[in-house]
Amino acid sequence: MSDAIAVALIGMAGSGIGGFVGIVVSARLTQYRLEQLEKKVQAHNNLIDRTYKLEEQQAVQEEQIKVVNHRLADLEKAQP
Questions:
Q1: Long-range Cβ contacts of 44-52 (<8 Å, 24+ apart)
Q2: What is the distance between the alpha carbons of residues 77 and 46, in angstroms, rounded to a whole number?
Q3: Report field, pTM of the whole predicted structure over 0.70
Q4: Integer Cα distance of 18 and 26 in angstroms
Q5: What does the DSSP assignment read for 28-51?
Q6: First vs last Cα of the chain: how many Å apart?
Q7: Distance between CA atoms of 51 and 45, rounded to whole angstroms?
Q8: Residue 61: what are its φ and ψ, rounded to 5°?
Q9: pLDDT at position 6, please?
Q10: Cα atoms found within 13 Å of the Cα of residue 37, Cβ hemisphere only
Q11: pLDDT by residue (tens digit) across 22-67?
Q12: How far is the CA of 35 from the CAs of 39, 40, 45, in angstroms?
């Protein structure tokens, strides 16, 4: 085998290995970034759920305040 062919095969093997390593590293980085994004999305979804529950509680409390105000108004009218 000539020296030129040996050098070409070594160069091709190096390029192939380098390309493969680059793909693996890129895939790991992409996977890591996706996991971090999923964590952020989950935190956001938890915040939205908590906000929705707070809004429900606020609506109930506002309704209770209206009822109490009507009762107070009725009691004030009933007093001599």
A1: none
A2: 47
A3: no
A4: 12
A5: HHHHHHHHHHHHHHHHHHHHHHHH
A6: 119
A7: 10
A8: -65, -40
A9: 87
A10: 6
A11: 999 999 999 999 999 999 999 999 999 999 999 999 999 999 999 9
A12: 6, 9, 15
